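To close the section, here is one more complete example, presented without commentary so you can practise reading it yourself. The ligand is zinc ion.
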Amino acid sequence: MVQLRHAKSLFRFQGVADDRRCGLSCLAFGLRALSRDVRLRWLPVEKREDMEAIMIKPIMRNELLLGMPSEPATEQDVPIGQDLLDTLAAHADSCVGMAANMIGVRKRIIVFDNNGTPELMFNPEIMHASNRFKTEEGCLSLVGVRPCERFRKIHVTYQDASFVRHERSFSGFTAQIIQHEIDHCNGIVI
Ligand SMILES: [Zn+2]
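Output:
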């Protein structure tokens, strides 16, 4: 994970303040130090209000609340999925995935960047996983990085925004992001 190590050293070098830091997975990948929510504050008020209308939510950083498992999502929770997509887009240069509890909603909903395409899953579950490896990750909700174990390949079931069930396989970095976000749904923070 060369990119992750590089990102880590970049944080230190730039001494980014707590509320301005990049997460690594919630997984930081773009290596800019300033996330978009910081840049929003520098925009003229009229523009800022336009952008806030797309429901960018504040990021939850309370580890006690992040440590609580989330409830199954229902069709009433579909708007939360859109808020998550908007909030992920707002952090796109520092973050590649989010779970609903990161915006303060304890429902099993995740979003992630699948090779450049944002995807949304309701009630995701890993059915099979293979090829375990050791790595380290950061999180938009946390400071720094932590060691963890992931699987290179996973098979996942989930429901889409119409609550139609799907089964799909993922590998590589996308699989890693999904595992990180499903952990959030289970109250596990790296
Ligand atoms: Zn995270």
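Once you have examined the tokens, check your reading against these statements. The first strand starts at residue 97 and ends at 99. The helical segments are 2-14, 36-40, 45-52, 63-66, 78-90, 172-185.
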